[in-house]
Write a structure and sequence with these properties.
Layout lengths: L21 E3 L7 H18 L4 E7 L2 E8 L1 E3 L4 E2 L6 E2 L4 H15 L17 H4 L4 H5 L12 H4 L8 H6 L18 H15 L3 H13 L5 E2 L13 E3 L5 E3 L9 H4 L1 E3 L1 H10 L8 H7 L12 E5 L2 E10 L2 E8 L4 E7 L6 H13 L2 E3 L14 H4 L1 E4 L5 E7 L2 E6 L5 E7 L2 E4 L6 E6 L5 E8 L2 E7 L2 H7 L10 H7 L1 E9 L2 E11 L4 E5 L4 E8 L2 E3 L5 E7 L5 E8 L2 E7 L2
Antiparallel strand pairs: 1-15, 2-3, 2-14, 4-5, 6-10, 7-10, 8-9, 11-12, 12-13, 13-14, 16-17, 16-23, 17-18, 18-19, 19-20, 20-21, 21-22, 22-23, 24-25, 24-31, 25-26, 26-27, 27-28, 28-29, 29-30, 30-31
Helix pairs in contact: 1-12, 2-7, 2-8
Length: 570
Amino acid sequence: MLFRHYSRCLRFIVVFVCVAVLAVNHRAAGDSASLRWELDQYITDARVLWGFHGAALVARDGDVIISKGYGMANRPIGDPNTDTTKFFIGSITKQFTAAGILLLEGDGSLKLNDPISRHLENYPKETGRRITIHQLLTHTSGIPDYTTLPHVVMQRNRQFSTSELMSMFDTKPLEFEPGTKFRYSNSGYIVLGAIIEEISGQSYEAFLHRRIFKPLGMLSTGYARREAGLPDRADGYTIDESRRLVDAIRVHFSLLHSAGALYSTVGDMLIWDQALYSETLLDEEEIRMMFAPYGCNYGYGVRIDTLYGQKHVWHKGFLDGFHTTFDRWIDDRLCVVVFSNEDEAPVDKIARGLAAIVLGEPYSRPLRREPVSIDTSLLPDYQGVYETDGGCCHIVTHDRGMLYSQILGEPRYKLLASAVDTFFYEIDNNRTIIFTRDADNRVISCEQKDYGRSEQAAKLVPKAAERVWKFRQEVLLPERILNEYVGSYALYYELEGRGSDFSLEVTRTENGLLIDLDKQDQIEVFPAERDIFYHKIAAFEIRFTRDRSGTVAGCEVSISGSRVSGKKSN
C-alpha cells in the first residue's frame, strides 16, 4: 500500500525456458488428496518462479483443503513460514474498519448518511458537513490521499496520533465534489477510525479487539506494533536494485492506523470469512450493505466483481515487505487467503489460480518463458500513458534498453519480449501485453491479457500523458558536478502549527545520487539535467538550488506534486 516505490526497483532476472502448460481441472468431488496435491504444487511453482514466500489457505464452506507456509518468515534466524505465522495485512484492514462502523450503526450510535462534522467537532466544517460516512467507506469523499505527502514519506518511522494524521489532509481542497467520483483514499479510512474512537470512547485497537476479534475467536489478529514483541511474526522482504532479497523498510503502524495497521494469520481470516456468512457479528442487512458495489465495484472496505461466473468479494493489502490478498467466491463459499512477506509476489494471481483449481476452471501454471531479442530502437514507440475505459492509467517507460510497465502510484515491472509488439511480465510470466499500431505504424493502444480476460487501454496524446506522468531520460553529468550536490540538507515543514526539521543526506553513485530521507532509507535518483534529479519509479524529484556564486545552497523535494524546501548545511 505505502511507500514501497520510494526506495525500490527491480526484481531478479529469471532465465526462462519455454514450458507452456495449460491445465483444466475436472476432479471428482471427494478426491481431496489429489486436490490438495495440485494446490500445493501450484504454490510451490509460484514459490520458485514468482518469488512467493508466505502462507496460503484454501477452504470451501469452512472446510480447509490446504493451509500451509512456504519459504522463510525470518531469514537470519531460519524460521520457516507456517499457517500460524502472523503477517501485516495492509489495506485488508479496511474491511474491519468498515465492520466497526456498521457495528456502531447497529448500536444506533451513528447513521451512514451522517456528515463527518456530526461526530468530529474539530474537523473543518466547510468540508466536514459535506462528506458523509457512506462516502468515506466507498472512497467517494474527495478527500486527497495523505500517503504520498512528503512529510509522511519522510516520517514513516515516527509515531502519530489520529489527530496528527487528519491534520495532514483535513484542510486540503477536495479533489472533487463528495459523491460524484470514486478515488481510492486512505485518508477516508483514517477519518472512519477517528469516528470509531470518538463514539466508542476507546482506541481503534481496543474497539476492534473487544467488538470483533475477541468475540469471533480471532486470537492471532490485532493492531501491529513493530516495537513490541510479536511471536511467530514474519519479517518483510523486498528485492533491491542488485536483485537481492533484502529487509524492507520499516513503517510505524500508527501512520497506517485504521487504513492498514492490522496483522493476522490465514487461519484467522477463515474465521472472519465464516462470520460473514452468518449473523454472528453483523446482521443480514449490514452484510448486504457491506458487499453492495457502490462505485467502481467497491463496497464497504471490499472490492466486488464477477470471476469464474460468480460473485467475487476481495481486497488486497500492501506495505513495504508484505503483499496480501483475501478472496471469497460467494456462491461456492470458497475462501482463498494468500499472505506473502516478499512484497513483489503476485498474490492476487496466485489466489485466483488456486480458486480455478478448486472450481474446475481453466488456469495457467506459473511458467518459464524465454524472451526473444528485439531492436531496442523500437522501445520509445511503446512509451506513454495508456488509459482504460474505467480511468485506470498504465505507464510504460523504457530505460537502459528495457521496457517497464506500472500503474500510477505502484512499482514498475519489467516487460520481456515474446515478439515485436508483444511482451510478458517478468514477475508474472503468463500475463501478456500486446501493443497495437495504426496505419502509420504509430502505437495507439495496448491490450493486457491474463486468465482469459482482456483489458484494453488507449494511448494518451503527449500533452494529456504529461499530466499523468513526467517522462524523463537519464543524462550523464561530470563527476565534478555530481560531487557538488553531496552533503546534508535541512528540510522544513509545518504540522499542526508546529515546525519540524528533518535532514536529507546526499551521497554519490556512479551516475546518480543516493538520497537518505531523515536517516531512514536511501533511494537512488538520476540526473534529468543539471541540478534536476528524478526517481525512475515514483513521482519523486529533487531540484538543487544555487546561490549567486553558483554554489549549491539548497534543494526542493517534490513528491506526488507536494514540495518541501531544504537548505544545505555543509
